[in-house]
């Protein structure tokens, strides 16, 4: 269950009881950067996925839109690229693309959070007062709940936060493992005022659609075959959503962890990125959650390359040249002729994670076809993101995969392959893929955002100008690319507040 929902409820109760009284917190001085690493030294730093200028980051916390400013807080170690001395890092933005990194909002400073200011959420209280509720790990290594509020409500950047003198507000009660995360011991009721036809229950990993008085009713077609409902079937953790009141949309953030060694992270001087913010919507059928990168990303697009109505013969590979393939946004839509002649799926093939690495044995009339991203010219390094269409009774099933087995010639990288099944309405006769390629991350949105897979990769050859992008079809019959649009992406600006005339 989303902690944010619980915190919202809990906080109202707490504040009625306690009132809000606060005292000054102690900020550790913010270390200034000596010099930023160059691109050549840092082939894995992302250009438009948010990451702090240095050091460790994990979960997004308390994303909020307040007085014209987007705030992103995150679990952050201001001192090193490892998970230690956890603070609340804080960055602000006017467009969700470019960011100003401020000093941490909360640092461990008190007996109740001396072992870290861990995850939490922000709630806007009556009177437009934002409040942070966070888990502190205290001197005795117990998890306790704490409150902080802004020092100066007129400051739209909310630079300084003060911890409540009533902290800790909650301590583990008898019978609860004090080192365990506090999870509900009760069930959340859906709000009784819910008047919409459907509502969505969103946890940090899964989503479900519910209807008033019919909890957890979902499209059973999707459950057939053991599908679950993850936001993302790759690296995508500890998600948080917030409502963007300026643009009337719900936005999803999530941490995308590193997939190589801690030693490499220490050498690079940083670890952890955020997924690009996604709008979350209901599909037209009302049965399915759909995710799509927020539109603001498009301002970074440059140098468009486009193809229309192009046949991709079975067994062919075709380079998409003319863009920076290490820093790109790619949208491709495939037409699927003769779907009725594709093979029936082997009834034993139920697990995408077992199927996706099958390589040549997957070859058939319906693919595999898709993209080879962050590929070296000789294709020894490549991340294949592909579809394979199967028949299942009178329906069609699409296997979507992201294959990391050849993503890097380096040692110590996680090569796990990811996959998911997508139900295809035979009348659609097409399937689309959008890939956000950004040096060491590829975020994939299949079937107009109905299935997402995010991968971290560390190519050694396919970096900077040596990275290439291909479309391929390893199936035995042609597929038609109805359209392919690819853009080089400009770099988002992420600057420390000192550089921003503060
Ligand atoms: C509070 O913030 C406003 C707006 O940034 C600023 O003008 C004012 O000086 C601040 N007040 C204090 C006491 O710092
Ligand atoms: C598939 O559809 C095409 C066009 O409608 C038809 O000509 C063909 O006979 C069908 N094949 C099968 C195996 O049903
Ligand atoms: C496509 O087929 C070729 C030839 O069998 C093979 O070398 C290559 O690895 C296949 N590509 C993918 C992504 O499976």
TrEMBL record:
Keywords annotated in UniProt: Glycosidase, Hydrolase
BP terms from Gene Ontology: carbohydrate metabolic process
GO molecular function: hydrolase activity, hydrolyzing O-glycosyl compounds
Coiled coil (residue ranges): none
Residue ranges constituting the Glycosyl hydrolase family 32 C-terminal domain according to the UniProt record: 296-488
CDD domains associated with the record: GH32_Fruct1-like
Domain of life according to the entry: Eukaryota
Classification via InterPro entries: Fructan_Metab_Enzymes, Glyco_hydro_32, Glyco_hydro_32_AS, Glyco_hydro_32_C, Glyco_hydro_32_N
Domain Glycosyl hydrolase family 32 N-terminal: 49-172, 229-293
Family: Belongs to the glycosyl hydrolase 32 family.
Protein name as annotated: Uncharacterized protein
Organism: Carya illinoinensis
Source species taxonomy: Eukaryota, Viridiplantae, Streptophyta, Embryophyta, Tracheophyta
